[in-house]
Structures are given as C-alpha cells and as structure tokens.
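Changelog-adjacent note: as of this version, every example in the card shows the full chain rather than a window. The one below runs 494 residues end to end.
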Amino acid sequence: MNHGAPPSFSPARRWGIGFNVFISICAVTAMVVMVNYLAARHFKRIALAGRAQAPFSPLTRQVLASVTNQVRVIVFYDKDEPLYDSIWALLKEYKFANPRIIVESVDYERDPSAALVVKAEYKLNAPTAKNLVIFDCNGKRKIVDQKQLSELDVSPIMQGQNARRTHFRGELEFTSALMNVTSPRVLRASFLQGHGEHLPDSEEMLMGYSRFAAVLEENNIQFDRLTLFGTNDVPADCQLLIIAGAKNPLSLEELGKIERYLKQGGRLLVLFNFESADRLTGLEKLLAAWGVEVGQNVVYDPKSTLNGQDIMVFQFGDHPLTKPFYNSSLHFILPRSISKAPNLGSGADAPSVTVLAATSENGRVATDIRPGPLSYRHPNDFQGTVPLMLAVEKGSIRGVSAERGSTRIIAAGDSQFLSNQMIVSAGNRDFASHAVNWLLARNELLVGLTPQPITEYKLSLTRAQMAAVRWVLLLVMPGAVLLVGFLVWVRRRN
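Full-length structure tokens:
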C-alpha cells in the first residue's frame, strides 16, 4: 500500500459532487411539484378496471354542470354493507365532476355520536332509518334509501337462497336527487281518476302505476290524483295531465274542462287500452279535434309477438322523442290503433301530428272485438303498418314552447305498457321518462338513465390448485426475491 499517494477525491471535488447532487435533487423536486400542480388543474380520469364506473350519461353530465350551489351529500351507511363501496366510488366521481358537491360518510355503527347528529338534523327517528344517502342543498332535501339503489332477482328465494342483486341504480337515483334539490321549480302532474283509470300509488302489477309515478319523481315531477266532478277544474299549477286507461265514459262537463285546459297550452298524456275498445269514453271525439283518430279495435302483429297478444314495437317515427329508441323496442299489450285523423287540415293553425310508434308491415287490425281468441275475421280489416302512438303539438310557433305557450299531446293505444308489470320490459321505462320530458318541453333531458348491471366473479379452485397457490405465495415468490439478491451479491463480490 502506498501511504504517500494523494486522496482519491480532493475536498474541492467532493464539494463539487455534493453540489451537483443537491442541484439534481432540487431539479427533480421542482419537476415533481410542477407536474402535480399541472395535473391537479388539468387532469383526465380514465377507467381501466373492468368494474370501474361507466362514463356518466349525457343527462348526468348536464345536471352536474348546472349545479351552482353547494350540495351536501351524506352517505349514512354501514361500511360493511355490500353496496357501500359502489355508492362511495360513484359519489366521488360526482365530486370530481363538480367540486360544489361535498361528499361525507357517516358510519352509524362505528361513529354513533356523529350518527346522532345526522339523525337529529334530518329527523331520522325511525329505527329503520339507516343505510341512506342524503342530498341537501340550501335546506331542500332528498333521501335515497338503500332499497332504491339496486334491482333484485327474487327467483333464488323459491330455492331457499338469498335474492341476488342484478343492477345498480346509483346514477339514476343520485342524478334524480340532484335535480330535485337544485331545481328551483317544482313541476306537477295530475292523474285523472273516477273512470277506471290506473292508480298512480298502487303497487298492483296490472293496474298499478306506482313504478311510472316513481319515474315522475325521478324527473323532479310531483304527482297527485285529480277528479273533475262538480266544481273541480284542472289546477292552474298542473303542468301535465295524465289519463291512463279510462274504461268508463267521461261526462260532457269533464271533457269541456280538459278541452279548455288544452286550449290554454296544456300538456296531456292519454293512454287507451283494449278493455274500452267496445265503447266510447268521449276522449275519442276530444282528440279528433286535435288530429288524432282513436280506433275501436285491437291491433296485433303475428311476426312481432311473444304470446299472440303482445307486440314488440321496433318501428318509430322521426321525432325528437323517439330518436334514442331507433335501436331499441317497446312492448305493448293488445294496443288499439292511434292514427292521424283523415280530415286534418294543413293551415298555419293546424296541429302538427307525428307518428311515434307503429307495427311492422305485418300488422293487423281486428275490428271484431268480441270475447275469444283474436283472429283476422273480416276481409275489410286493414293489413300493414298500423300506427300505435302519436305526438301532437300546436302553438304560436311550431316546435318552440314557452311556459304554457303551446299544447302538447301524446296519445297511445295501450296503457298496460306503463303498468308495474310491463314498464320494466324492453324500453318502456326509458320511453316513459322521455315522454314526460318532451311533454313538459324539457328537450334537453331527452336522454336515458339506465341501471348498471352488476357482474359477479367467482373463482373456484380445487384443493390441489389451492395448495399450488399457497406454495407460490409462501415459497416461490419470496424465494425468487432471495435468489435475485444472492446473484447481485455474488456479482458484486467478483
């Protein structure tokens, strides 16, 4: 060893190396800070996982963009509940989309003191008041219950198993709640009653309309029942009148009140059914004045049916209401024909009448509606494409609607397709939402919100496969790390 040799690094060189390292650290730190600063203000979220939240619908994006006031969202949930993670992940996406949405979680099991504060503030006194999502904007509140957030397949119950969740309704319910608490205007729909119509608050499958009523609420539309007997009139704050499946005739006085409402720019959804095809309700004559002819018949389509009495409708007219359904279908039960009146004028003051839905070219009209199996009984009965639903608009400027400025009507030959049993079939539910929004001149909301399917993954391993996985985790992977470390040590020794 040469003790007289100069040191490998002089003090100046060591200081120079240290300075260079310091400058490099500062440069890297500045770059990391700059990248994070830019990323915080200009970011793009990309879903990579198969179970990641699907992109928001156009309606949700529009509602989120319209939120200008702070909205407080409280997830009052037990974090061990199966839906909690999906709810929390989805609401974080709402928050990322609009920072005015403040999301907080209160676990009533782990934090009972915070839970008591929430219960007192929102008057959640019932023992079952748990697993809720609360939306609050300037004192206007909407509570989404856990039961509303998923669709269940109850068929396993018949085999002694638990019901299975098939769809997650989070975006549908949360966007509806946002619309409810941020909209300054309350819309009201009235269901005409007293003539055998469907009941909006009934859960009965064939005659109940509670699921359609829920669609109204999701669109921030309150509903009530209405009778026009005596001195009762259509309320001034009724933005939408619904006559669903009237079986008995309306009086001249009632028809006069409805006619007056329409002439003042009213909005009407009128649905007929086969049970009243053998009698006149008075609505037929009222609608004729608006260019609508209601057939006293039953329509069927032998090439587009599942059981001979229903029709899968794939033919849609050119109208803003129907454009989202060109690749979808509606499911009707024994509808009646609804067509343009043959004597409809073409003047400037004539109503605009558009066919919304029709059968295929194989449609059949049965005018002999006596009890018994449907058949093609008369040679004069029409064969071909049969219209089943129309839209009518009449105003000072066609296609432009101000508040109660133009009349809008949708007339359909079937009322069962919006019943509790049928509204979940094909595109019926989405059509119901689109129909009420078009009638109320909310064209910007003519987009669909559908529940997202829940995909379950199950991994089944044999005992031998489980043993192999165990050895890989406990031996192979740690052993590979040790082997690499040993090889590095040997190379450095040599």
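Structural remarks: Confidence is low (pLDDT under 50) at residues 48-52, 397-402.
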